[in-house]
Each structure stands twice: as C-alpha cells, then as structure tokens.
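Lecture 7 notes: from sequence to structure.

We start with a single chain of 73 residues. Read the sequence below before looking at the structure.
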Amino acid sequence: MDAGAATLVTYGAATLLASWVLLIIVAWKEDYAWGLCSIFLPPLAYLYGLAQLDKAGQALLLAVVGWILILLA
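Now the structure, written as tokens:
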C-alpha cells in the first residue's frame, strides 16, 4: 500500500469514527436506551440514523464521505 492509499484509508476511518460519535450523541439525546444500543452495537446506530434521517442526516452524510475515502484507496 502506498502512502496516498494509506492516507485515504486513515482519513476515511477517522471520518467513520466521527460519524459514529455524532450518531451516538443524536441517539442519546433522543433516548438513553438508543444511546446505549448505539454504543454497544454500532450497526444499530446507523439503522437508527436512517430511521431518524431528519435528526441524523449530517452524521450519515459524514459516514458516506468516509466510505468514499476508503473506497478510493
């Protein structure tokens, strides 16, 4: 793996981590049970984000950007 691809993967992973943290914050504001489920089951956090797109749309957009960066590598 060259330096450019490693950089894209690193930035993509950091972006995905940031989106997950934002989803946890949004889910926790909704209900503490959703917050706990989002912490312990990260895929559930993204399903919650799809269900509450008006509240978690920005975090899902950040996740899409992260996956694009990873796929470009």
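The radius of gyration is 13 Å. Keep this in mind for problem set 3.
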